[in-house]
Amino acid sequence: MTYTIIVRSIIIYCIVLFLLRVMGKRQLGEMQPYEFVITMIIADLATIPMSDTALPLLHGIIPICTLALLHFFFSFLSRKSKYLRKILNGKPVIVITPDGIDYTALQLLNMTFNDLMESLRTSGYFHIEEVLYAIMQTNGSLSVMPRSAYSPLTPQDMHLKKEESSLPIIVLTEGKIDESNLNMAQISEQFLKQELQSLGFSNIKEIVLVTIDQQGCMYIKPKIGKFITHKIEYNGKRHW
Amino acid sequence: MTRRIALIVILVFLVTLGTYEIIAVNMFLDHMEKAVDQLQTEITLHQDDLTVLVEYVNQEKAYWEKREKNLNLMFNHKDLKNVCDTMNRVQTYIAQNDYENALVEMNVLVETVHELRSVMCFNYDNIL
């Protein structure tokens, strides 16, 4: 019986994982209402045939597959029709306007002032007067637009010219070289090893992480000890 | 593209399974219903000497056992076990020429087999 349950669990896990991957990568908090409902039901359905061996495994797989189909169908409808999107997903609600908190909107969302304050604090705003607009999105997250006086100062405000940031990519993790990222960075494995050797790492197994950005700045974290940064000679800037 | 393929695979899987179930289960239940109805009549007809039905019951038991493995894919195993247990009892009573018990168990078997169809049918009752 134990082995039966183990094998059943593995099968169900693989199917649910596959379906959730196909359904799209979303965090629980970012889901639209219909996605959330389907995910919750799938999670519940998956556990029943896992432990109850009297039930055929198909009794768990069929509803899960049906829900996945339903998800595709609703996603399709949601993409194609603005009207259905509004029904399935709801619409964003403005909870704070320049005049202050919209109490009617809060009631509509079944939210308390405490809930609103909590969401504002999560967004980094501790005083309501700092907020010009706050919009409750359909996935339950709060988008906040601060008043100009409370907006963070940007280089543009100061008329400063700042070099564009560059995106680092991982070229080595836990002693293993990521060849596809190495190709993207347009450096050879031999070159990387030479650079690491010049920094005193004779064996790449001693390193847990190496990243490189578009300007050739390397970040090296050895297994033991503090991280090091190192700049390699790039002919121009890389793009990825 | 991957999503579209997955969608088609799931759709084909569900339709194939549903169709297979309708065909296979109906064929099996048609046979079983006929067989148990026939056996019920035969028991009443041969109440003096039930042992003449031993061969027939054994054949039906063999038919059941042959298909039980496939049915496990679709039926709740407890329902199948009920049929199997009742069939075993009918087989024993017939071999012992115990008419009264054989008839009682036979009635239970007829009910259980007919109930399997109502459990598996695609109808409003089952949907609701």
Describe this structure as you would to a colleague.
The complex is a heterodimer of chains A (240) and B (128). With 240 residues, chain A is of the alpha+beta class. Helices cover 43% and strands 17% of the residues of chain A. Chain A has eight helices and nine strands. The longest helix of chain A has 23 residues, at 58-80. Chain A is flat, with a radius of gyration of 26 Å. In chain A, 14% of the residues are buried. Chain B has 128 residues and is mainly α. Chain B has one domain (28-127): Four Helix Bundle (Hemerythrin (Met), subunit A). Chain B is built from five helices and no strands. Chain B has helices at 2-45, 54-71, 77-95, 99-120, 124-127.
Total domain modules of chain A: 3
| Radius of gyration computed on alpha carbons of chain B | 18 Å
Number of strands of chain B: 0
Strand content of chain A: 15-25%
CATH fold call of chain B:
Four Helix Bundle (Hemerythrin (Met), subunit A)
CATH class of chain B: Mainly Alpha
Order of helices and strands of chain A: HHHHEEHHEEEEHHEEE
Itemize the secondary structure elements and their pairings.
The complex is a heterodimer of chains A (240) and B (128).
Chain A: H1 2-23, H2 33-51, H3 58-80, H4 82-89, E1 93-97, E2 100-101, H5 103-108, H6 113-122, E3 131-136, E4 142-146, E5 169-173, E6 176-177, H7 179-184, H8 189-198, E7 207-212, E8 217-222, E9 228-231
Antiparallel strand pairs in A: 1-2, 1-3, 3-4, 5-6, 5-7, 7-8, 8-9
Chain B: H1 2-45, H2 54-71, H3 77-95, H4 99-120, H5 124-127
Give the structure's gist in a few sentences.
The complex is a heterodimer of chains A (240) and B (128). Chain A has 240 residues and is α+β, with helices and mostly antiparallel strands. Chain A has eight helices and nine strands.
Give descriptors for this structure:
heterodimer, A: alpha+beta, CRO Repressor, 3 domains, 4-stranded antiparallel sheet, 43% helix, B: mainly alpha, Four Helix Bundle (Hemerythrin (Met), subunit A), 5 helices
